[in-house]
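Homework help board

Subject: predicted structure for assignment chain

Our instructor gave us this sequence and asked us to write out the predicted structure in C-alpha cell form, then describe one feature. I got the C-alpha cells but I'm not sure how to describe them. Can anyone check?
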Amino acid sequence: MKTICVVGTGYVGLVTGTCLAELGNSVTCLDIVPEKIANLQAGNLPIYEPGLEPLVQRNVEAGRLRFSTDYITSLDGVDFVFIAVNTPTVEGGNGADMQYVESAARSIATHLRKDAVIINKSTMPVGSGDLVSGIVREHLAVPSLSVSVVSNPEFLREGSAVHDFLYPDRVVLGSSDRSAAQRVAELYLPLRTTIIITDLYTAEMIKYASNAFLATKISFINEIARICDRLGADVREVAAGMGFDKRIGRSFLDAGLGYGGSCFPKDVKALAHMADEAGLHPQMLDAVMKINEDQRRVAVEKLLGDLGRDLTGKEIAVLGLAFKDNTDDMREAPSLDIIDWLVEAGASVRVFDPVAMPTAQRLRTDWPVRYCQNEYECTEGCDGVMVITEWKQFRDLNFAHIYAAMRKTFGAPVLVDGRNLYEPAEMKRIGFRYHGIGRGEDRKPLNGRFNHHLTPEGPLALLASQETATSGRTE
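My C-alpha cell output:
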C-alpha cells in the first residue's frame, strides 16, 4: 500500500484518487475550496459521474480515502503527489492557463517533508514537467529532499471515467528520472495494461496528439455529413462502411453537433497555440476548430429553414443541455450557443436535461428559458424540437404522442435530430418535418440535374452482419 495525495477534486482528481484507493492505496484528495471538501466529507459529490459515488463511499468507509484542505496533513508521509488541478484556456487567448498548476507546485514544495514523486496528471503543455520541476526546486522547504517529476496524462472520458481508469487502453509515463517513472508504473500494475515509459516531452505530447486526432475524426465526419446532405447520401451508412476498414475504425465517426466538454476544445486550441509559438502553421488543427464551430450553426439553420428566420412567437423545445450523455458538464456544450441563437432569433425556449439543468441554472442565471420536468412537458405546444444531447432515454420517446401535443400553427412541427437518434422515414411518417445531420435531406441538383441512383434497401451495417457472404473478392 502506497501513501498518495491528489491535489484537485474535479473530474480527473476525484476519479484518480478514488480509483487509486480502490486499488488498495491510502489516498487523500486535497482541495483549497473548503465548500468542496465539506460536501465531499458529507458524501455529496461535485460532479455527476456514473459509478463514482458508490466507489467513493466504499473507500471512505474502508479508511482508504479522505478529503482535506490542509497541505501539511495531506502530505505527511506521502510517497506520491498527483497534480490534478484545472488548466483552462487563458482568458482571451488559446494557451493553457497554468496558474493553478504553479500554485499547487509551490504549495507541495513548501509543505513536503520526505522524498516523493510528483505526478502531473492534469493536461499540461509540452514542457510543463520542466516548469513544475523548477518551481519545486525553488520552493522546497527542505532542499535535501529527492523529488522527481513524472508526466502521467489522463485519458478519462466523462461519463465512463471510472471504467476508463480501471480498464485503460494504456498508461503513459514520462520523466527524466526513469526510476521515478518505474515507481509510478508499479501503482498501475494491478490494472494489467500496457505501460509506456518515455521522456517528459513525449508523454505530454501523446496526450495532446491523442485528443487532437479524436477531435479531427469528429470534425472530419461532420464535414462529410454536410456533403452527404447536399449529395443525397446517408452519413450513418457512410461511417459504417468506413468503419469496417481496420485502418480507419468506427469510433468517433458519429456525425452530430461537434465536440465539447472540458478536454477537446481547450486541448486542440492549446496544441495549435504551441505550434504557433514554435513558428509553425497548424492548418489542420485550425480547420478542425473552424468546422466544429460551424457545426452548431448547421443545426439551427435547418430549423430556421422551416420556421423562418424570425422565431418571434414560436416555441422551441431543446432536449439535452450537457455536452454529452452521462454527465452534467456543460463546458463548451453545443446547447449554449444553440439556445443563445434561438433566443436572439426571438424564440421562446423550453429545455429539459435529465441531469444538467442545475448546472445550466448556475452557469446562465439570466437565461430566458423555461426548465421543464420531462421531455413531454418540454415539447407540448411547441413548434419545433431540437435534440442536442444523446441521452439514452431520448431514444425511446413516444413521438406519436409528442407530435399530437405539438402546435401546428406554422405547419407541421419541426424535429431537428442533432445526434441522428431516429429514423427519418419513421419521423416523417408520424408527421414531422424531420432533419438529421448528414442524412441526405438537403440534396441539391448537380449541374442543374439530379444524379439518379439506386437506394439501398437496408442499412449497410445490417447487410454486413448477415451470415451469408458473397463469392469473389472486393477491394
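Reply (TA_rk): Your C-alpha cells look well-formed. For the description, you could write something like this. Residues 450-475 have pLDDT under 50 and may be disordered. That's the kind of observation they're looking for.
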